[in-house]
From TrEMBL:
Signal sequence coordinates: 1-19
Gene3D superfamilies: YVTN repeat-like/Quinoprotein amine dehydrogenase
Keywords assigned: Signal
Protein name: PQQ-binding-like beta-propeller repeat protein
């Protein structure tokens, strides 16, 4: 987007609403996102990430990237990731955008050179800072009922699920999924569909049922014990969607061939 010093645009969001924004900015704009929950507009320029109120056109909050990107405690992790070539598991999570909205949540993920942040898009509060928690973020999900984040992160070349409590800002549990090397070998062939110019379109989602978390990662379904974080089982293939039956004791899985598979929760 070639916009300099101002925003003047109508943005269509997934909920079918338009937001009209005209705001003077101090730098060239690199990215604009409409938050469908609040109607506010997230703006990224070369130096800052900001939020513009969709109703008043006033600046709600702003922070300088350098205040977080200059943190060097994650350079070791970044170096490890940069050394890995042709890892289709890791490459599946590459994104061109630095700012992305976390689905069905009031949060946004911000990826910087040596750091990842999760920000409350309404207030600008940084609720998760990778430099402090020592995990680079691959993917984030919001557990609405629990007000927690389920984070797929990297630490010392190990991929883990983290259950992060937003109230206490503490990790309730973490469970290792595997190493970058092992997951590259076991899931790399599946995840090749998400690399390259033409990628497979799968919308990952998360739901909870009784004592389990059900979540898809690039179409691979995992069931996780909500209390311990133990992975009960996962599919060895990519699915396009899943849902629970009325009794919530079986999972109905839809594959990319449009076939249906039933699986017991236990």
């Amino acid at each position: 987007m070639n916009v300099k010093n101002y925003i003047a645009l109508s943005v269509f969001c997934s909920m079918g609403a338009f937001a009209q924004v005209t705001v003077d900015m101090k730098a060239d704009i690199e990215q604009v996102l409409l938050d469908p929950l609040s109607g506010n507009v997230l703006v990224e320029d070369k130096d800052n990430v900001s939020c513009v109120n969709g109703q008043t056109n006033e600046l709600n909050w702003s922070f300088a990237k350098k205040d977080y990107a200059s943190i060097t405690t994650l350079e070791g992790v970044t170096t490890t990731l940069n050394k890995i070539e042709n890892n289709d598991f890791l490459n599946a999570f590459n994104k061109d955008e630095e700012v992305t909205l976390i689905p069905q949540s009031p949060f946004a993920a911000v990826r910087l050179e040596h750091n990842d942040l999760i920000v409350n898009s309404a207030t600008g509060e940084v609720v998760f800072n990778s430099a402090e928690m020592q995990y680079r973020i691959l993917q984030t999900y919001y557990l609405i009922a629990e007000n927690n984040l389920l984070i797929l992160g990297v630490k010392d070349s190990t991929i883990s699920f983290l259950n992060y409590d937003l109230a206490s800002k503490k990790v309730l549990w973490s469970n290792d999924l595997g190493t970058l090397d092992s997951l590259g070998k076991s899931l790399g062939n599946l995840f090749k569909a998400f690399t390259g110019k033409v990628t497979q379109q799968v919308e990952d989602k998360i739901i909870t049922a009784s004592d389990e978390i059900l979540v898809t990662v690039k179409g691979v379904l995992y069931t996780i014990n909500k209390t311990s974080g133990k992975i009960n089982w996962n599919t060895s293939y990519i699915i396009t969607n899943f849902f629970l039956n009325q009794r919530k004791d079986k999972i109905v899985v839809i594959t990319d061939e449009s076939s249906f598979l039933n699986s017991s929760m236990h």
